[in-house]
Specification:
Elements (H helix, E strand, L loop, with lengths): L1 E4 L12 E4 L24 H10 L3 E7 L1 H4 L5 H18 L5 E5 L15 H7 L10 E4 L2 H8 L4 E5 L4 H12 L5 E4 L2 H17 L1
Length: 203
């Protein structure tokens, strides 16, 4: 597993929730093995959702499978340039990731960090703290949903990216799980999360 950005030292004192955000298809448009920073495009409403979540006290932690590295589709230098562009665009919008962790392996390479495995959670835990209650994973694949639910966090599948293709699978596996939500995009996901969190607070 690899780290693009560690959470700041203050994150070790954080006692509130976190949003674990997949990158491609959730925060930015999925370009399929994105290697050109000039092709980076924020999805509509993603920066605004991140701003709102941060203001509400959530840590924003990126967790991303980047199998293009393991498949030889792009280099670590390419990834760095793409991430720098994402960071610049989010910063221009007034937000950004508190930390960002990624798996560089292709499927079948036997790693413990490719979602839904726990490695990215464990890596993030070295520099971040979060309360399980109220923390969520947002992604566009069934593996993202499993990544969150396997660790007791709520999960939201967004229909952007590959999400629409995974919706039926998620409904089959977690259709009766109140901690699994489906939303159109990150903005809608965050709005749904806040509704559930408010309902939990009232219990």
């Amino acid at each position: 597993m690899s780290v693009w950005k560690k959470c700041p030292p203050s994150a070790l004192e954080h006692k509130g929730p976190a949003l674990f955000l997949d990158r491609d298809g959730v925060v930015i448009v999925d370009r399929n093995y994105l290697s050109d920073p000039n092709q980076v495009e924020l999805l509509p409403g993603s920066a605004e959702a991140m701003i709102a979540a941060s203001a509400a006290g959530y840590l924003l932690i990126g967790v991303s499978n980047q199998s293009g590295l393991g498949r030889g589709r792009f280099s670590i230098d390419d990834l760095e340039l793409v991430m720098a562009r994402i960071d610049w665009l989010l910063g221009k919008a007034g937000t950004g990731f508190d930390g960002f962790y990624f798996c560089p392996h292709a499927p079948g390479q036997g790693c413990d960090c490719r979602k839904p495995a726990a490695g990215l959670f464990e890596e993030a835990a070295e520099s971040c703290r979060w309360a399980t209650r109220g923390s969520w994973v947002v992604g566009d694949k069934a593996s993202d949903v499993a990544f969150g639910r396997n660790r007791g966090l709520g999960s939201v599948l967004v229909r952007t990216g590959y999400g629409a293709e995974h919706e039926n699978e998620v409904r089959r596996q977690w259709g009766h799980d109140p901690r699994v939500l489906i939303a159109d995009d990150l903005a809608a996901a965050y709005a749904a999360i806040r509704v559930v969190d408010r309902e939990d607070a009232d219990l």
